[in-house]
Amino acid sequence: MNRFPVLRLPYVALREVIESTDKSDVLNLALASRKMCKLIDTTRNSVSMKKLSQDDIDKLGVMDRYNITRLETLHCSEHVRKELEVNISKEPSLTVKTFYAENDIQKSMTFRVHVDFAEDRPVWNQKVMRFGNLDVPVASESNDTVHTLWNNSDCGVGWLCCHFFQKFDLKRFSSLEINPEDVEYSEFSTILRSVVDLVKETPEGPNLQILRFGLLTAEDSQYLFDGVKYKDIIVMGRRIQQNSGAFTCESSLFLLGDADWFSLENLMSTKCEIIILRGSQMTNDLIKQVLMHWMDKKLEKLAHLSVELREEVDIESILSGLSNRTGYVLTRTKESVTIRRGDGKRAEILIPKDESEKKTFKMISC
Amino acid sequence: MSVENAPVVDVDEAAIPVEKKMYYRFESNDKKEFRVSELAIQQSETLNRLVEAMGYTSEDVENKPAIAIENIDGKTLKLVFQWCEHHKGEAIPVDDGSVPKIVEIPEFDAKLMDIDNGLLFKLIWAADYLNIVQLLNVSCKKVANMAQGKTPAQLRRVYLLPSDEEDEAAKRAAQEAQDPRAREVEEEFEERKRQGGNSFF
């Protein structure tokens, strides 16, 4: 191979070489050594988010964005934050977001890698992209999105997740979005489980969003929630009959959009600080039992509960459960009723203000 | 005009110039002499200022010794002057601020630079020293093109770039060479650490 000792050039010439090099090549050059990267950043063809303008960043292709994220990771750059979002659906994808923020300056860079089944794509317009040491065929791309082709898309998602975790030194998935609509179920299930396995290895859980929850099998639902901590959970879609039964989850926020299947047992087994249930079939009688469980110190993690009942909230009916209890103090105001337990912990039950809130039971525990 | 037909000539092979314009005489560090037209010299900011400052007449050019360029050899200087003669009269390019810089290598320049990397390296040094903007642009573009489509590992080989580990080792070696006690101190420190000592001093 013909070699050229570029570092022995005078600085003006070296700068000229760097500034004449295409961005993709200069990024690979910056990845060749730390010293070279520092030199490159003294020129106008810089490769760090600190020096690149948002306009420059927006013009970059997926591979360049990937390489910049790698560089920022390698050099442990200050003021740079990275996030990985995983979408498991008919078209699974991974999205890497990199943010730069210093004083008033903020820049961001995103790239999305779709994981497609190779047989579904024509061969003639394929290119190859190199992720680490693996050449991955690519069917089509735009500035921030690329469709990668895999013989097994479940392997693709798992491999890319591990690769991004390692190369970008990520500590957690920032979000996991799941939509089982129109999927080939066994493949979907394999992808789901491989990603959940990775989530379990991270100290902090991601945000979880599920659409069409009813299409998820009971087994996958259990795999998704059992023993896995999430930050916020948002679930949309009714759970079908066969999936009803045991349900537990652990998160900071749990929002259930179509909670008609959600039972008192389900509520009692969740370990969430904020629980919001919309469209539930719960009644004042069930809420009375919730309050009794709180009195019995069985919902200690709960800080905020908001439940849309199937009937209008009847505060007196709910409070009637306290009639055979002692050791608490009840305070009433126009807006709320506060119950202070013997151990000093309080529950504030908000009185619905208007028509729109009349079916919503709200309780704040502190 | 082809590279072979460029008007730069070694003095021993020189024919008398047909043009009436002044031709300056330059000598490389290995005593090769070249005659270069006044217009071609304008491509080099360094040489142009030099000849302006010297204020030579036609007689001076013939009678006084050739202007010595002491840090460029004859082989390199021949390429430089061939390039200057070919591009004489052309405007010196002004940086338009585009990044990466858009530089096209003309056919003549490509043939001129169809040389081994050792000579290309010397040509770039010469273009930088003589401040020949466009020659520096095209020669550096040729070096930049060597990076096309290469992986970081391949680029380390092509450009002879030390890896981070090699850079670290070189840095340590340089520090040790500067302060011979550094190694002793480091070894002593390591030894104390092995013995479980909390304090070094």
UniProtKB/TrEMBL annotation, chain A:
Residues 3-52 form the F-box domain. Pfam families: F-box, FBA_2. This is F-box domain-containing protein. It comes from Caenorhabditis brenneri (Nematode worm).
Automatic annotation (TrEMBL), chain B:
Residues 134-178 form the SKP1 component dimerisation domain. The keyword Isomerase does not apply. CDD domains: BTB_POZ_SKP1 (cd18322). Pathway: Protein modification; protein ubiquitination. It holds the Pfam family Skp1. One of its GO terms (biological process) is protein ubiquitination. Residues 26-88 form the SKP1 component POZ domain. Residues 166-201 are annotated as: Disordered. Residues 169-194 have a biased composition (Basic and acidic residues). It comes from the Eukaryota. Keywords: Ubl conjugation pathway. The keyword Cytoplasm does not apply. Belongs to the SKP1 family. Probable essential component of SCF (SKP1-CUL1-F-box protein) E3 ubiquitin-protein ligase complexes, which mediate the ubiquitination and subsequent proteasomal degradation of target proteins. Regulates cell proliferation during embryonic and larval development. This is Skp1-related protein. It comes from Caenorhabditis brenneri (Nematode worm).
